[in-house]
């Protein structure tokens, strides 16, 4: 499995990340994970959906994230590749087996909504959609489309590229800033640091709001289309 993944295109970039935290390979048990997650609910909530806190630190949604991604983040936080004074004490409470267990538990909660993947041409007048689907290749920017790694509609790809659609806007902003400030330096080949560095403040706000609200906007479009069909 591992050799297959490493052989596949982007997998090459990820080999480094996976090798850095070998403990990710431990088999997790969701039931034990639920017991170990007792302290997490204060912030990530009982349903694992986290919370957007416009005037403070937002708590990411964990429910439905890939188990391997969750485990990697907990190791990264413990080992300082991702600096978070709020999260560190809780990550430190977990040993390798407990990390695998809570990862299995959260991965099994309500999955990320399935969004249409059918290609639709990005609207050049919609700055956020254009950035998400086409990037920003203006001189001095050279920002690849988020969808190149996070998948169409930011649904996530495999274990390594987390979903963005439906994640809290405040949290997305905080992570892009963390990369810019060097507080998060845990991504294979600094892929995200390179992206975050080249976004300007306005683009960060725009793209965070775009992904946070994408699932509801797509659902609303679906409803509108059905109403039209019904006429
Ligand atoms: C005091 C609030 C708080 C508690 C309690 C807490 N967390 Fe967190 N958690 C956060 C914050 C804030 C972040 C974002 C950290 C950052 O900015 O890098 C986070 C991030 C995470 C992430 C990374 C998510 C991602 O999308 O990359 C994981 C995984 C996680 N927490 C798991 C846990 C687990 C498991 C527990 C319980 C053992 C827990 N947290 C307890 C506040 C908390
Ligand atoms: C070249 C690949 C690549 C591109 C392009 C890319 N990302 Fe990422 N992104 C990643 C990887 C890899 C991670 C996970 C890093 C890790 O292991 O912690 C990530 C993580 C993130 C996270 C953290 C999610 C979480 O749950 O903590 C955010 C937010 C994010 N990316 C936003 C964006 C945005 C916005 C864009 C477009 C402007 C973008 N990314 C483009 C590779 C990419």
UniProtKB/TrEMBL annotation:
Binds 2 heme c groups covalently per subunit. InterPro entries: Cyt_c-like_dom, Cyt_c-like_dom_sf, Cytochrome_c4-like, Cytochrome_c_Oxidase_Subunit. Residues 28-110, 130-215 form the Cytochrome c domain. GO terms for cellular component: periplasmic space. Residues 1-25 form the signal peptide. Heme c 1 binds at residues 40, 43-44, 87. The keyword Iron applies. Keywords: Heme, Iron, Metal-binding, Signal. GO terms for molecular function: electron transfer activity; heme binding; iron ion binding. It comes from the Bacteria. The keyword Lyase does not apply. Heme c 2 binds at residues 146, 149-150, 192. PANTHER family: BLL4483 PROTEIN, CBB3-TYPE CYTOCHROME C OXIDASE SUBUNIT FIXP. This is C-type cytochrome. It comes from Halomonas icarae.
């Amino acid at each position: 499995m591992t050799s297959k993944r490493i052989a596949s295109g982007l997998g090459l970039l990820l080999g480094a990340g996976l090798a850095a935290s070998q403990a990710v390979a431990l088999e997790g048990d969701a039931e034990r994970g639920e017991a170990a997650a007792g302290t997490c609910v204060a912030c990530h909530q009982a349903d694992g959906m986290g919370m957007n806190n416009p005037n403070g630190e937002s708590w990411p949604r964990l429910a439905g994230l890939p188990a391997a991604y969750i485990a990697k983040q907990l190791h990264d936080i413990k080992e300082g590749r991702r600096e978070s004074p709020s999260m560190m004490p809780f990550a430190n409470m977990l040993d390798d087996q407990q990390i695998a267990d809570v990862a299995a538990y959260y991965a099994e909660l309500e999955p990320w909504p399935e969004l249409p993947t059918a290609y639709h041409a990005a609207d050049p007048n919609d700055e956020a959609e254009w950035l998400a689907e086409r990037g920003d290749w203006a001189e001095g920017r050279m920002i690849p489309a988020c969808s190149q790694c996070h998948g169409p509609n930011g649904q996530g790809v495999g274990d390594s590229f987390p979903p963005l659609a439906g994640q809290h806007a405040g949290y997305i902003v905080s992570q892009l800033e963390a990369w810019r400030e060097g507080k998060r330096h845990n991504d294979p080949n600094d892929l995200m640091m390179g992206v975050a560095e080249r976004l300007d403040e306005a683009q960060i706000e725009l793209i965070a709001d775009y992904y946070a609200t994408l699932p509801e906007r797509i659902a609303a479009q679906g409803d509108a289309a059905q109403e039209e069909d019904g006429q």
